[in-house]
Structures are given as C-alpha cells and as structure tokens.
Amino acid sequence: MFHKNTTLGEFIIENQSSFPYSSGELSKLINAIRLAAKVVNHEVNKAGLVDIIGNAGDINIQGEDQQKLDVLANEKFIQTLKNREIVCGIASEEEDHFISVNSSDNKHQNKYIVLIDPLDGSSNIDVNVSVGTIFSIYRRVTPLGTPVTMEDFLQPGRDQIAAGYIVYGTSTMLVYTTGDGVNGFTLNPALGTFYLSHPNMEFPETGKIYSVNEGNYVHFPQGVKDYIKYCQKEEGDRPYTSRYIGSLVSDFHRNMIKGGIYIYPKSSVATEGKLRLLYECNPMAFIAEQAKGKASNGFKAIMDIVPTELHQRVPFFCGSRRMVEKAEEFMKVK
Ligand code: AHG
Ligand code: MN
Ligand code: MN
Questions:
Q1: How many CA atoms lie less than 13 Å away from 237 in the CB half-sphere?
Q2: Which site among 58, 141, 182, 216 is 20 to 30 Å from 210 CA-CA?
C-alpha cells in the first residue's frame, strides 16, 4: 500500500484516520518523538568524540556542562514532549517520580501519558555498540482538567495506544505500532528524514537465536536452565545460535528480523529480573504481539500484568511465538 520512499511524516498523516481516537493529537505526539529521536541520534553519533570534546562532568568549549548521554537523552525527550500540548504526564526510567505536564493556557486538558526508557543499553555507549530508546503511550484514565495521578501511569500494557523504539545502530531506525501492525523507518542522515524501510514487520513463527546473559546461568531458575540446555541440544534444528548484545532494543530488533527469543529471567540475585515493566517490557511486548510474536514473564502475557509500581521489574521472555511457548513449557515444569 505504501511505496518504499514514503517518509515517516507522510505515513503519520496518512494513517491518522485509522487511529482509534483520531483527533490528530497522537500524530503530533509521534512527530514529537520523531524529532527528539533525531536530536538524540545526533548526540549518540558524537559519543566517540568525548575524549576530544570532554567527558561527562567537564565543561566543554562553549562553556556548557558535558552530560552523560542517558541524562541528555532523558532531557531531550522530556523537553520535546513538554513543549507540545499533547502530553499530560511523563514517566522515565531516569526519573524517580512521574512528571505532571500542565501547559499554561490549557490546564490539564491533554490526553496522553508517555513512559520512556530514554537510553537503553547505555553501558554500550562507551564501546561503540548500538543503543536505543523505548517509548510507550497511554490515554489518561483520570478526568481531563485534573492533574495526573499514579493511576494514569499504572495501566496494564494491554491499554497502550502506541509503543515503539529507536535503535541507534549501524543505521538509525524508528519502529512503532499504533495497534495496527508494526512498521520500521530508517533515517537518511544526510536529509534527516525517516523512510519506511520495513513495512509490516513480523517475527518469524520460530527461529534459531537465543539471547540471554548466560554469565548469570548459575543464578537462573531451573526452568530457564533447562530451556537453555534445550537450545544447545543437537536435535532437529538445534543447537540454536547464541546472540546477546546487552541492549534490549538491539537484541529484540535482530530477533524480530531473523527469528529468536530474548530472555531476562529472574535469578537468585535479581529476584524480579532486571527489566522494567513500564519502560521496557510493556512497549516491547506490544510491538512483539503486533508483530505476531509473544512476550511473557514465563507464565503469563506481560501486557496482562497489572502494575503496582512505577519502576517495577519483571522477568521477560520475548520473541518468536513458538520459542516463547516452548520456554513457558519449561517454566511450568520447574
Ligand atoms: P538500561 O541501559 O536502560 O539500564 O537497560 C539495560 C538493560 C537492557 O537493555 C539489556 O538487555 C540489559 O539491561 C542487559 O543487562 P545485563 O548486562 O545484566 O545482561
Ligand atoms: Mn533499558
Ligand atoms: Mn535506560
């Protein structure tokens, strides 16, 4: 339906009428994220120059403080979202509390809540390995005209209106869903324009890649240990290939294209796992399900979990549908 040189801007406009509550505001919101993504992309691309232009905490040549990229990405996304009269609340992995946005002439009339992991995989920045941004969008549940409350942020993933990620990789891509499939856009850095490069992205039903930090093996639940042994067994299309970047966004992106499973289980040292339900797992789960994949905590769908805290962690099993189902079988036994 779309030709290959459709830009993200065109795509957003053309799809506006298919949004469930179409008023143009969600389009504006995605446009704001598109803009912030370009700004952060520019900063990420310069990361290797920190030794030349200064480290975090230093004063740069313009007399400005150098900031850590995760702090900077956080500020850029929050600023860009606040500057538009669309968002009533923002929660970020980098902030202890949620932010209530109250634009001056429009007292608490905005509808949308945004949750973000501004820089995912940030430890990879220093070694020139791909990082990302993850975002999740909901409609507020408290009445318009009142300040947002925790209730607006603690909605189950099923209630997401849109979710997406940006991967700052060998090329920069923005991948998102508004509940009508998943589309991927690649940035042409010379023009600063995202083009539709990956229409209707789907996880292969099964795959041959498993992605897990096996260094933590001894601490994993027995079901995960057994599933890993299953992946490594010589039988049928196994052993599978192990690939783990340590940036959820990049590991997920590769597995969606090639077929695979990503696992961050709970362990005896991280009793709830590591990944955050609201900023990481729910948005990735929405994208996964929209791309015919699956996301689970080992026992039930991630998006059915009712959150209790802003920074809640959950075990995460996500990827090709049949692989996640197989991992769940192993979890059930032990
Ligand atoms: P963040 O940089 O936002 O804190 O997220 C890092 C996450 C995720 O991206 C990655 O898959 C995982 O942490 C890696 O954790 P381990 O180093 O424990 O494997
Ligand atoms: Mn993260
Ligand atoms: Mn982060």
A1: 9
A2: 182
